[in-house]
TrEMBL record:
Stated name of the protein: Gasdermin pore forming domain-containing protein
Subcellular location: Endomembrane system
Stored InterPro entries: Gasdermin_pore, GSDME
Keyword annotations: Membrane
A Gene Ontology term for the protein's cellular component: endomembrane system
Gasdermin pore forming domain residues: 4-224
Family classification: Belongs to the gasdermin family.
GO process annotations (BP): programmed cell death
Record flagged with keyword Membrane: yes
Length: 471
């Protein structure tokens, strides 16, 4: 439900609170109330954000003895009559999702406005000291399956919700989609989003949903520290988790994508992808990925499988896949089986097609391929389709232009490296820039290449994908 996601993200953005996490899915809102457990999972990759994942557990369900802090929870009005009208771009991941939900033809629209009106928003919270006092000498159930899974993974840890932003009345998101481009749209009633699109197409779409009273729109959480062997828990000394929230479930660690060095992150990326770059099978592997990008909706499947194999190498709990199950996951996607074979991932025909994990000598190249798949999954389908045709001749120029954008710098239209790629004629490099949302515009009377200021573009993932696919 992309409209709900856009609403919660905008609310968090407007608070200016980097420690707040928006709710990505209305169905998970009930798992983000005070005293609910959140799983913090650090990424394997330095350019990717830390994930904060709702779980079905409350703290009391994991403790040997429940605690009652209900009288310590205070509620107050956070903001009255909250409303906003953010502009979303179809080239952005969230804007693209909404466009797909509403059936907007992205070839006729550049951006659209979503009208949201949540009314008054309340804040509920428990003070750090009150929660810390309540946890004194308390222990977790060390034999609980979920607790065991957390203990056995270095990248996973527990957090507890201490603060929430909640709706105070039954609310309906009024999605007045006003499309900028060749299409226009309007909404005529509150209970439904009635979208009339004109341009190269003409159709009417209806989309609406209600947000019940008391729905959690955003939450803040404290880290929990577990003293192994004893099961004792305490709040992290750092108190609030201060990651910069960049996604509904993500918070980026500080200096995750450093541009301090002359070559930006290239040295770190060369190290991270060394096994793939020097592999005698690099050409075949990249070819497989290009063919997979012809059906980009399956990028998340290859990431899911390779991440599972990386968990196997890390001696973590893994999912046991069968050949039939993997085939059903990939559907009409091509080249996935050849890629897995190159990486040493096979299936045992004598054991119901059970997946056979690769030998340890394949670990580094599998890890590199998993990193690439992760970045490809971070791009939109349109961006991946454009990336498929990007060849090495466009690599340096694209990395230069994307690096400028990451640093917040616009590129003058007369820059030689821009002129080589951003010509009047169509080419794969230019198509990829357009898919990312880059536009030629004017600043102080001069032509520049820039991203729209309100566009959420996965620049780090784009940089990594070009660096690996087109090097």
């Amino acid at each position: 439900m992309a409209l709900f996601e856009s609403t919660s993200k905008q609310l968090v953005k407007d608070t200016g609170r980097s420690s707040l996490h928006p709710i990505v899915d209305l169905n998970s809102a009930s798992q983000c109330k005070i005293m609910c457990i959140i799983e913090k999972k650090k990424s394997r990759w330095f350019w990717r954000p830390t994930k904060y994942l709702p779980t079905p557990f409350t703290l009391n369900e994991l403790m040997t003895k429940p605690i009652d802090v209900s009288k310590k929870i205070k509620t107050s009005e956070f903001v009255s009559n909250y409303s906003n009208q953010p502009t979303l771009h179809v080239s952005g991941k969230l804007g693209g999702k909404i466009a797909k939900e509403l059936g907007i033809d992205v070839s006729t629209a550049d951006s659209f406005v979503v009208k949201m009106d949540l009314g008054s928003i309340n804040k509920s919270e428990i003070r750090w000291q009150d929660l810390n006092d309540a946890l004194k000498d308390q222990t977790l159930k060390l034999d609980h399956e979920f607790v065991q899974a957390i203990l056995n993974c270095r990248r996973r840890s527990l957090c507890i919700v201490f603060e929430t932003l909640n709706t105070t009345k039954d609310t309906n998101i009024q999605s007045d989609i006003q499309v900028e481009g060749d299409a226009v749209a309007s909404t005529d009633i509150i209970s439904k989003a009635s979208v009339n699109i004109s341009g190269s197409i003409k159709d009417t779409h209806h989309h609406s949903f209600d947000i019940p009273n008391g729905t959690v729109m955003a939450y803040g959480c404290y880290g929990l520290k577990l003293l192994e062997g004893l099961g004792l828990i305490e709040l992290d000394v750092d108190k609030k988790l201060k990651d910069v929230v960049t996604d509904a479930t993500d918070g980026k660690p500080p200096d995750a994508f450093s541009m301090d060095q002359p070559d930006g992150p290239d040295t770190a990326l060369t190290s991270a992808f060394n096994a793939l770059m020097k592999s005698p099978h690099k050409g075949d592997i990249i070819k497989c990925f290009r063919e997979i990008l012809a059906t980009p909706e399956y990028c998340h499947v290859i990431e899911q499988l390779l991440d599972n194999v990386c968990d196997y190498f890390d001696k973590e709990k893994v999912k046991s896949y069968s050949l039939d199950e993997v085939k059903s996951l990939f559907g009409s996607c091509n080249s996935w089986e050849r890629l897995l074979t190159i990486l040493g991932i096979t299936f045992d025909s004598k054991k119901g097609g059970k997946m056979i994990y690769p030998e340890d000598d394949k670990k580094d190249v599998v890890l590199s391929c998993c990193g690439l798949a992760t970045s490809l999954h971070g791009l939109t389908n349109l961006q991946n389709i454009a990336l498929k045709d990007v060849t090495p001749e466009y690599c340096d120029q694209l990395l230069y232009l994307i690096r400028n954008a990451i640093c917040g710098k616009n590129t003058p239209a007369d820059d030689p490296r821009l002129k080589r790629i951003y010509t009047h004629s169509s080419n794969p490099g230019k198509s990829f820039l357009l898919a990312l949302g880059f536009q030629l515009t004017k600043q102080n009377g001069k032509d520049i290449l820039a991203l729209p200021p309100d566009l959420e573009c996965p620049l780090e993932d784009a940089y990594v994908a070009v660096f690996v696919m087109a090097s």
